[in-house]
């Protein structure tokens, strides 16, 4: 069994006439939380969307748990045990929280068939999901929608969670709740790949880090080492953490 659950090798992605990724090499160690950092426009979201098959890599390979998934369709990749939470969260606003969760629980036809122990675990991680169970999802606050988006992603067991900017626009108290939830997810054996702009979030949670610039990974290593090296931070990110 490889130490890396996910590996990108020389991945290029074109979107129309635009060449966005220029040979991305990225390793996501099994059972760890990997942070993907970089300035706006560096290619972070494109990398996540390419992993999920929403945009096809024009060159290079993507391997998940030893299998080449480069050419698989998005539903096939999800079927391998990968969940994706986009920056937009993808909430169905006109459906209730319960109905949003039920859509993600592919093995259940009604809410009563969702694994009870797993649902109780999710409610403990994100109490707002239980509190607003029968409310329209569109009426939730931004933080509550983010909790719902992550809850949908884990309503069934997953090997890998791929999440784009989970703390964006959230109040500090909700961010702390999210940090605690992700720490517990990692402790349960789930591997996580997060794009994040909140530096405190990255420092507290990250095991490993990859920094992107101009469609390439320009630095990879331990999050702790980057957090302690202000000169390296400025050279890679243009600021100190």
Description:
This protein is of the alpha/beta class. It has 2 domains: 29-56 and 70-81 and 158-241, P-loop containing nucleotide triphosphate hydrolases (Rossmann fold); 91-156, no CATH class. The protein has helices at 44-51, 74-79, 97-104, 116-125, 127-131, 142-154, 172-187, 199-205, 223-228, 230-237; strands spanning 4-15, 18-29, 33-38, 57-64, 67-68, 82-85, 160-164, 191-195, 208-213, 216-222. The strands form 2 sheets. Strands 6-7-8-3-9-10 form a 6-stranded mixed sheet, sandwiched between helices. Helix 7 (172-187) links the parallel strand 7 and strand 8. Helix 3 runs parallel beside helix 6 (142-154). The chain starts with a strand and ends with a helix. 38% of the residues are buried.
Give the secondary structure arrangement, pairings included:
Elements: E1 4-15, E2 18-29, E3 33-38, H1 44-51, E4 57-64, E5 67-68, H2 74-79, E6 82-85, H3 97-104, H4 116-125, H5 127-131, H6 142-154, E7 160-164, H7 172-187, E8 191-195, H8 199-205, E9 208-213, E10 216-222, H9 223-228, H10 230-237
Parallel strand pairs: 3-8, 3-9, 6-7, 7-8
Antiparallel strand pairs: 1-2, 1-4, 4-5, 9-10
Helix pairs in contact: 3-6
